[in-house]
Amino acid sequence: MADASALTVSVVSADHEVWSGQAKQIIARTTEGEIGILPGHEPILAILGAGEVRVTGTDGVVITANATDGFLSVEHDTVTIVARNAELV
After folding, report:
1. Record's Pfam families (predicted)?
2. What domains can be seen in the chain, in order of their start residue?
3. Region at 84 (left for phi over 0; alpha for psi -120 to 50; beta for the rest)
4. If you average pLDDT over residues 46-50, what whole number do you get?
């Protein structure tokens, strides 16, 4: 069962899932600038800019992925990051 104070996150590229799990914070670069996502964030849909996506897991470990040509979606503490190219750093 998901933690009520956590985000459910999926980072996917065009051909595979790069990372998924529970997180307490996400920082990503969009075309409008850098955005931070915490549990309870309002729903958004944003276009990814060139750069890194940093996911802080519920255990405090930071996972970093390069993600380009895609979007970020947030709804009901579920974050989906879809990119044409994505890979763990």
Report:
1. ATP-synt_DE_N
2. 7-88 (2.60.15.10)
3. alpha
4. 94
